Every structure is written in C-alpha cells, then in structure tokens.
Amino acid sequence: MSRTVVVTVKPGSRKGPLVETADDGSLTIFVREPANEGKATEAAARLLAEHLGVARSAVTLTAGATSRVKRFRVD
C-alpha cells in the first residue's frame, strides 16, 4: 500500500537536516544541500525515508522536481 506525502523543502538551510511537523500535519524538510542538480531533492527524499522509518528505495518523487513543494510516493 502506498501513500502520497506532500512536503515543503528548504534547501541550503543551516537548520538542517531536520524534519518539522506543523500543527496541521504538514511536513517541512530542512536540508543543507543547495537547490541545484537535484541535490536538495535527493537529500529530502533520504531524510523523509529516515523520518518515516522506510528504506530510501520506498520513497519516489512524483511531482515538484523544481519546486519547493514536492510530492513523494511512499511504498
């Protein structure tokens, strides 16, 4: 069973790596990697997998490759 997780990514953050959950349940992922060549997206996927307790291979980007708001499918 897979589910879709929508996250906001903050690349180049000194605060990261960190996952914050807001009161409404939305996730914000802070990563140190810059927003170029997919580095921040890959770091966000790794951190999301760790946060959810699943393997990195279970997390797939489905939308938002060049946006700060991204959709990941988690298997």
Automatic annotation (TrEMBL):
SMART domains: DUF167
Family to which this protein belongs: Belongs to the UPF0235 family.
Record protein name field: Uncharacterized protein
